[in-house]
Amino acid sequence: MSIDPHAEIKILRKQLQSLMDEARLNEKKWRRLDQFEKQLIGTRTLPELIQVILDDYKTACETDAITLVLCDPEHEIRRILERSQAGGAEMPGLVLLEKLDADDARRYPYLGPFDAELPRAIFDPWPADCRSMILLPLMRQGEPIGSLNMASSRAERFTADSSTDFIERLANIFSICLENSLNHERLKLVGLTDPLTGIFNRRYLETRCQEEAENVRRHHTPLSCMFLDIDRFKRINDSHGHGTGDRVLCHVTGLIKAQLRSNDVLSRYGGEEFVVLLPHTGLRHACEIAERIRRTVDAQPCRIDADNELKVTISIGVAQVTDQQEGDDRTLAQRLLAAADEALYLAKESGRNKVVSDDNRPVSVTAKRSLIKLLGFNSA
Ligand SMILES: Nc1nc2c(ncn2[C@@H]2O[C@H](COP(=O)(O)OP(=O)(O)OP(=O)(O)O)[C@@H](O)[C@H]2O)c(=O)[nH]1
Predict the structure, then answer these.
(1) InterPro entries from the entry (predicted)?
(2) Which value does ipTM take for this structure?
(3) Given ligand 1 and candidates 233, 274, 313, which is best to mutate, with the most ligand atoms within 8 Å of its CB?
(4) Which residue, of 122, 195, 316, 351, has the fewest CB within 10 Å?
């Protein structure tokens, strides 16, 4: 049978055209991926990195839903997000899990029709008309650290035979960026935290105090501050050694922390002195919290070895600033710290194991009692 050369050329042309179309499409995809890589690598903070994946990548991939599941066993990611964004760790599409389900991780990557058996927590809420999806593992040094998940209302968007080269490469880059970003945040934290107690240091406190002073004017809510100092700490060191002194510092840190809200800022200001900032809190409430802390420390001795406990007490000075006060943010912050420090001095002077407010008026039972004691009366 003779072959019509014209027909053959036509077929070959068609095949060539289809190959060229595919090459153009791939080139377009690579260019888009290249752009994304640069965008991911260029992000400077963890929230920014997560946002690029959840917002920009979703738009570029033309999917109807996207979620990022990250394993966060020590709540490290949650804490970083809480510290760096006003909205806390909540980001639409971000799912932080304490533990990854090993069976789920083994099923990935998954591409194909919507599978009701797969955990719904990945998409919450699940897009109503979802027909196909991809669940892609995020790996770091051979270990699963989470998954990138997308869903589409188009059944043909993710099929079992779709190529995953592009998205897998992107997932790898994201995993590296995530690790870099976490390392960067850890380094930042080293400069801002106290190595013994793990809480913020004075440097962080002073910067944060100024930011919170700014919020006083913006939100018209008061900001309170406590200066807390362990009583006769030198004696503890001298009688029991520095190691025990360090243990007492950690013990007191834990007791203070347990009485605070997540948005309060606890720092070790130096030596045996702690400072707490209480945003959106007035003096009366701050004094109540301070009194609760004082009582807790008084009631819970520090275990120094198997047989011995050490009674510890603390003195606390409390002050507040409101939007009625004059001066710029820096002045306001400095005034707040100085006033709380002054109140602490009065608490020490009046016998220790006390809460004293810098306000002349007795704003709470505690302050009233402290004031009475300060004036030399027996408050019993
Ligand atoms: N163990 C330990 N001791 C520290 C640390 N930093 C400071 N200190 C000690 O804390 C003690 C503070 O003593 P003082 O400032 O005299 O105060 P105090 O004995 O607590 O007396 P009052 O505050 O007046 O009740 C000193 O002995 C410091 O050496 C630390 O990181 N670990």
Answers:
(1) Diguanylate_Cyclase, DUF484, GAF, GAF-like_dom_sf, GGDEF_dom, Nucleotide_cyclase, Rev_trsase/Diguanyl_cyclase
(2) 0.94
(3) 233
(4) 195
Q: Tell me, yes or no, whether 127 and 264 share the same domain.
A: no
| Atom 6 of ligand 1: nearest residue by CA position | 271
What is the tens place of the pLDDT at every residue in 204-256? 999 999 989 998 988 899 999 999 999 999 999 999 999 999 999 999 999 99
User: Torsion angle, CA of 63/65/71/72, rounded to 10 degrees?
Assistant: 120
> Residue 14 falls within a domain, yes or no?
no
Whether residue 259 lies inside any domain: the answer is yes
Mutate to test the pocket of ligand 1, among 237, 250, 354 (most ligand atoms within 8 A of CB): 237
Domain identity same for 45 and 166? yes
- Specify the CATH number for the domain of residue 288: 3.30.70.270
Q: For residue 105, name the pLDDT band (cuts at 50, 70, 90).
A: low
Cβ–ligand 1 contact at 313 (below 6 Å): no
Contacts of residue 228, defined as CB under 8 A and 6 or more positions apart, other chains included, come to 252, 256, 273, 274, 275, 276, 290, 293, 314, 315, 316, 344
- The total domain count for the chain is 2
Residue 81 lies in a domain: yes
Evaluate whether residue 5 is within a structural domain.
no
